[in-house]
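Record 1 of the preview.
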Amino acid sequence: MTLRPVSHIVGGVLLATLVVGGAVMRSAAGSAFTAAARDTRPGNTAYDSRFTFVRLSYKMSLGGSGFRFGGRDLPWAHDYPRAEQNLVRILSDLSLLNPVQGPFGGNILPLDDPELHRYPFAYMSEPGYWSQNDEEAESLGGYLRKGGFLIFDDFRGEHWGNFESQLRRALPEAQLVELDVSHPVFHSFFDIKTLDMEEMYIGYTPQFYGVFEDNDPTRRLMVVANYNNDIGEYWEFDGTAWLPVDLTNDAYKFGVNYVLYAMTH
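->
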């Protein structure tokens, strides 16, 4: 894989930060965004126009997983906060994006928080356990249609059913299309040559699915689903010697490309 010189992306990233970010923000015009009115989860940082990694929180369906956080099962917090902390550091080192490096790497926002419309990029872990009410579904659908870009990660096999049904509540018209390596999202910074990755879950082959604006593959990609995979896990355990360096490096390439695509489309 070839690293594209940083200088080639600087102008596009800075311009897109204004254009794409501005398009998303316009949907929230007229709302009173103040630090006091925002979600009060520990570690969130106030919006200052720079790229911020946003993790979506949600109410849990099904039975939950074994992940424990604050005494509760919170699948949406899987790999938090090390995954975003490490990815944001890589973004800071490799690009001139100048991301916010908050105390926990990014912000956590619920699906119906109007603050979400300030941020072009969002990430959801374990959508196999995702649940939402009608207001949250409407809010998330509006975010995606108005310029938002969402990554779904860490789910496999039978989790697909819940993921797809919840996504269709937010985007009833959505058509999930399997992506191949030719799509620009895999070349927005790193030139990714193959989508073949080692199995994160034994017996499950990683696949990448997307949802396009107006279901038109020539238009903007709004959603990427890392199915049968857990790219955030590779980010989380980078530097621990628990996972092969090559796998964590590849996972970073996907993460950086996702962010750069979101900021330039």
